[in-house]
Amino acid sequence: MTHRLLLTCLCLLFLSASLVSAQGDAGLGDTDLPLPVGGHVFAFDADTVSAMHAAGMTWVKQMFHFYAGADLAAISDFIKEGHQAGFKVLLNITGSSADMDASGDEYYAAFAAFLGEVAALGADGIEVWNQMNIDRVWPAGQVNGASYVRLLAEAYNAIKAANPGTLVITGALNPTGFFGAASCTDQGCNDDVYAQQMAEAGAADFADCIGVHYTEGAVSPAQTGGDPRGDYATRYFPTMIERMAAPFEGQDIPLCFTGMGYLSAEGYEASWPAYLPWGKDTSVTEQAKWLRDAILVARDDGRVALLIVSYVSRPSGDEGYFGGLAIIRADNTCPACQAIGSLASLPRPEPIAAVTAGDEVTATISAETPAVAFTIVPGDQEQISLQVIPAEGSALDPVLVVYDGEGSVIAFNDDGSASTLGAHSGPLPGDQELTAVVYAFNEASTGDFSLGVGSGKAILESSPLPGTIAGSSNVNIRSGPGANFNVVTVAAPGTQIALRGRNADSSWLAVTVGGVEGWVAAFLVSTTGDVGSLPTLE
What we know:
Layout: E1 18-21, E2 27-31, E3 37-40, H1 46-54, E4 59-65, H2 73-84, E5 88-94, H3 97-103, H4 105-120, E6 125-128, H5 145-162, E7 167-170, E8 184-185, E9 188-189, H6 191-200, E10 210-214, H7 237-245, E11 255-260, H8 284-301, E12 304-309, H9 321-325, H10 335-341, E13 351-355, E14 360-365, E15 371-376, E16 383-390, E17 398-403, E18 409-414, E19 423-429, E20 434-440, E21 447-455, H11 458-462, E22 465-469, E23 475-478, E24 487-491, E25 496-502, E26 508-513, E27 516-521, E28 525-526
Parallel strand pairs: 3-4, 3-12, 4-5, 5-6, 6-7, 10-11, 11-12, 13-15
Antiparallel strand pairs: 1-2, 8-9, 14-21, 15-20, 16-19, 16-21, 17-18, 17-20, 22-25, 22-28, 23-24, 25-26, 26-27
Helix pairs in contact: 1-10, 3-4, 4-5, 5-6, 8-10
């Protein structure tokens, strides 16, 4: 994937157990994770429950469909099973656009009454409809945020009358710019315009949370650029948060990601569908790391109250969209469960050594010593940087966590990649004692490493970031940062390179390729490091 960047640190507001409350009386419950997390399931069997517990999830979601004469038995059973397994239960309930078109207001009343019955059964949350900004699920010619809010208002009143404690979440929209400059047609609306229509129609008065979907990411959740398909807001997690939060600014209502996932074709390569190209090159390890990091980004943003992972498991036989998103993989392992669950109890061993700016120390991560801590001694520097580099031949995939003198997490960094191992963080305060903890991403990842402490960003100058040439054709390496400079060498796709610096706007990178120094356009480089942290060499 092209130009894959991870922010130098994900700074957390809180990483202890917390109670996150949505607007109104509905609560999201206690969690040991940075914010409440759940999973969308198909089969709710013992293996699924075990995987969700390992991930620290506290919510379980399933989708149901309303129709005339719909039986509540299956819904009742699922609510009971979810509660017995220790989860809060979120139900996404949709209906029929054809029936709605035929019956109008009568359908609204029947649908709302059904949701009231569901709430009375003990549902902890109800997501009202789904993707209603497209005519596949809402009557053509009637797709409008104000039309949906009419239904939402009836549903909200029925739900709260039956069970005031049931969380009401607006249906998550289909993230799309398909309708172009027109924004809305008879067939649907772009999600940002539809959300604005909802806000103006008073949706926040009839909900506890705004539902959001994000399942088309192909880069780290810390990135806001560099997607190989081109830049569009729905492709990046931070801009997706902003896109859905902006229409409701000042209305005191949070976002609930009721569908959050990263496609990975790993394990399904032979049958991977051509219509899902953005998941083809994402590894299972990247999927796990990105889901973990999305939780941190969401918590740090402060506008997200709940995150539901789509999906925990896949429907039987599915090796495409659902299988690619599922965190229980084709081999029945769940790397994402371990990655997400690790946020509930970050390791904090006693430091084994003290390190000052300019020093470097080596240590080993093993089964017997899964985490190592160091005291970072304050000095005269206003800022410092830390970098963890696995030793040559080491299988270690390190994670770096930095605590301040009061024991609060101030930085969390992982390379976010399956192919490039390392971790770095900076700038960090250099005038106070810090604790740096290094641990392995998973149990199979062990080995020797070095931790270097530099003044400001100097450590990154002496330790270039690793990267590779992206794309499908040879790339010119030039003598300066621009297409007008002479070509000094050519690099084939997949060539390993070292990133030494950047120009002022990070559009060109100073690299070393096979011992030759030169410059290459940033969009032709794949790296999991923070390009913005490289020194400006222009």
